[in-house]
């Protein structure tokens, strides 16, 4: 039995779901294997570019497997450029993926495959997630976000290329405000369209963002105010407007960090008045006034100072949240609990 965990977009929880399902299957007595045919979450270490997810899988599932098999195609910018220039042979790549899969699958009852960042990624070498499902005879579990009914269009469009290989949809990281409508209206609608919904997982704060302390560490920031560093940040707001406009904007934002110049006292003050702002990230190496520091300490809103400019800081901060620095054994443990409580795990594993 082969299960491909795929998704509509990046950062939907594919890795956590795939590894949690693998561990649940193993608890049921199956021997399991893991593979990510296209390495997309790339980090450079010791001169090699590797995907972090297979490394985590090898550790948590205690796999005796070569990284070159766990990740047969390193889908890096250089690889993409070479493929576009005709220097990568799609047939040879498919054969490499197939051979790696056969090596990993030997002696296992179940294989869990993790898709790329998006299900259509890999099209330039005929290795989209639907292509991989066909190549490796896998059933696809589609991980989807949900905020509004309009998102159903995306789910149906994503389901279509898998055809009969689609096992079903798992909605993940669903906010409380959208939960009832999804279960009451959307799930029955999709089931009526022939799309099985295996579960709706509620938003778990510790899985949806990173702490201010983790942000500080990843950005190389100096914590000018350390109170509140354990607060979670899920999104960012840029303080580029005047004080009054900024306050109106910040009050509509939840679980956010404000990124702004260290010399924008009006924006600092506005941010500290908004209950949904959990952190200030001040750019350009400018220290704020002692009054701002004092107020932040009083309200337990950490202030981080970085030397980089605002645009660079935004890009780096968003990458930290998007890449999910909390992805570790704790994350997989939490996902196991969410799946057990809110998904039909038996149906997913039965395929």
From TrEMBL:
Keywords, in A-Z order: Glutamine amidotransferase
Record Pfam families: AAA_26 (PF13500), DRTGG (PF07085)
Domain DRTGG: 214-318
Record field: transmembrane: none
Family annotation (InterPro entries): DRTGG (IPR010766), P-loop_NTPase (IPR027417), Ser_kin/Pase_Hpr-like_N_sf (IPR028979)
Keyword Cell membrane applies: no
Protein name: Phosphotransacetylase family protein
């Amino acid at each position: 039995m082969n299960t491909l965990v795929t998704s509509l977009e990046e950062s939907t929880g594919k890795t956590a779901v795939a590894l949690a399902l693998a561990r649940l299957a193993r608890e049921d007595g199956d021997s399991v294997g893991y593979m990510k045919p296209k390495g997309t979450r790339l980090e450079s270490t010791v001169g090699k570019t590797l995907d972090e997810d297979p490394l985590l899988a090898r550790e948590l599932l205690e796999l005796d497997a070569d990284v070159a098999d766990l990740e047969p195609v390193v889908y890096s910018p250089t690889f993409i450029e070479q493929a576009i220039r005709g220097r990568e042979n799609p047939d040879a790549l498919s054969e490499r993926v197939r051979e790696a899969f056969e090596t990993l699958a030997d002696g296992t009852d179940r294989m869990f495959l993790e898709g790329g960042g998006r299900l259509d990624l890999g099209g330039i070498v005929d290795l989209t997630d639907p292509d991989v499902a066909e190549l490796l005879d896998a059933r696809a579990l589609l991980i989807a976000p949900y905020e509004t009914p309009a998102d159903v269009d995306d789910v149906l469009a994503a389901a279509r290329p898998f055809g009969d290989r689609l096992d079903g949809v798992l909605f993940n990281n669903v906010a409380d405000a959208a939960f009832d409508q999804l279960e009451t209206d959307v799930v029955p609608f999709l089931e009526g369209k022939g799309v099985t919904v295996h579960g709706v997982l509620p938003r778990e704060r510790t899985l949806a963002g990173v702490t201010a302390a983790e942000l500080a560490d990843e950005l190389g920031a100096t914590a000018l105010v350390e109170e509140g560093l354990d607060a979670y940040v899920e999104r960012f707001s840029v303080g580029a407007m005047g004080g009054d406009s900024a306050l109106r904007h910040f009050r509509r934002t939840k679980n956010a960090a404000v990124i702004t110049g260290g010399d924008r006292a009006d924006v600092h003050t506005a941010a500290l008045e908004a209950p949904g702002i959990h952190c200030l990230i001040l750019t350009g190496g400018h220290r704020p006034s002692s009054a701002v520091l004092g107020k932040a300490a009083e309200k337990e809103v950490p202030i981080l100072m970085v030397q980089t400019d605002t645009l660079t800081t935004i890009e780096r901060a968003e990458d930290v949240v998007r890449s999910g620095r909390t992805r570790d054994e704790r994350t997989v443990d939490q996902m196991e609990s969410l799946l057990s409580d809110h998904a039909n795990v038996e149906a997913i594993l039965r395929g």
